Amino acid sequence: MLNVAVVGMGWWGKIIVPLLKTSSKISVGKVVEVNPDSIADFAREQGVEVVTSYEEVLKDPSIQAVVLCTPHTQHTDQIVAAAAAGKHVFCEKPLSMTRADVLRAVAAVEKAGVALAVGHERRFEPPIVEMMKIVKSGVLGKPLQVEANFSQDKFLSLAADNWRLSGKEAPAGPMTATGIHLLDLSVGVFGEADHVYASVKQLGSHLVNGDTLAILVSFRNGGHALISAILATPFDGRFAIYCNEGWIEVRDKTHPEAPEGWTMTQCFRGGRREVKEFPPVPGVLANLEAFADAAEGRAPYPVPRDQMVANISALEAIFKATKSGVVEKVEG
Ligand SMILES: NC(=O)c1ccc[n+]([C@@H]2O[C@H](COP(=O)([O-])OP(=O)(O)OC[C@H]3O[C@@H](n4cnc5c(N)ncnc54)[C@H](O)[C@@H]3O)[C@@H](O)[C@H]2O)c1
Fold first, then answer.
1. Pocket of ligand 1 (CB under 6 A)
2. Using alpha carbons only, what angle is made at residue 56 by residues 54 and 61, rounded to the nearest 5 degrees?
3. Is 216 helix (H, G, I), strand (E, B) or coil?
4. What CATH fold (topology level) applies to the domain 125-281+303-329?
5. Whole-prediction pTM value?
6. Whose CA, among 85, 148, 250, 316, lies 20 to 30 Å from 173?
7. pLDDT tens by residue, 234-258
């Protein structure tokens, strides 16, 4: 049983703590929140001890790992500090905001020999696992192009000064909220990106940081990803991979915070569309338990570190492209 401290008890920390209560692999030893009054009722209901200092849990020998659910610009330094204290790290997305920072984070965990995991639960959803297996098996032929969308309207109710709407913490509007998950899956299909074009606009809401994002990613091994992420329309989620012998698409029924299942559609050349329904499974918990397996040496974490680096390298180029308005080369 991996004993963790969950750090940052806002929207996502409050999703993760109750999920971990159902786990036979992870226990929540403490939670860290800089604004403890905001979670007094929650902490009582969940029966968790709240501390206000991250440094305190890093010194605590009963805590073996941290689960970071904090604002984006804090992630890299918190990963580095945790690794230096010998704690395994599960970090919510994005792991870092720049390639230089993700390399710093990965170097720190490698030096310390601790596990590193990232909150891209989409990779752990059963239909996505099956889709990736099918594509990697080659039965659909060569992967040519990804088309993906992850849109939602949850941020319309946030206060204008919320960090998740700020240009510093969330450049490129919806990118760090939802687009990053699709970029991660696209890296899972094609590997390292070569160059990107991206445009973000404020078209349908009061979100001045931008509510509508369109991205074209071109990968080094060939292949494109067309990524759409919108914050001013109701939830939608789809990920499709087009190959030269057929295509496959996964559609989400609901946001991953409360999954209600998925529909997978597959079509081979000359065949008919085949549709398969998947019942709901908590992908967020599956990801956290894969992290526990890695930390306790039962199995390697299934997302390779070079893909974590490739994702953030492409992310940084997307941030640049939305500002420059031109195609940006991905570093690395
Ligand atoms: N995987 C997913 O699908 C998913 C979904 C939602 C959010 N997230 C990620 O979760 C993270 C948190 O997002 P959120 O929407 O929950 O934000 P939030 O603002 O609701 O919560 C952040 C919390 O962290 C606290 N905090 C800030 N600095 C802290 C520190 N140094 N130590 C302890 N607590 C600190 C804040 O007071 C706040 O309560 C982000 O990385 C976000 O991208 C992931």
1. 7-13, 32-35, 54, 69-72, 74, 92-93, 119, 121, 164, 176, 256
2. 115
3. strand
4. Dihydrodipicolinate Reductase; domain 2 (3.30.360)
5. 0.97
6. 250
7. 999 999 999 999 999 999 999 988 8
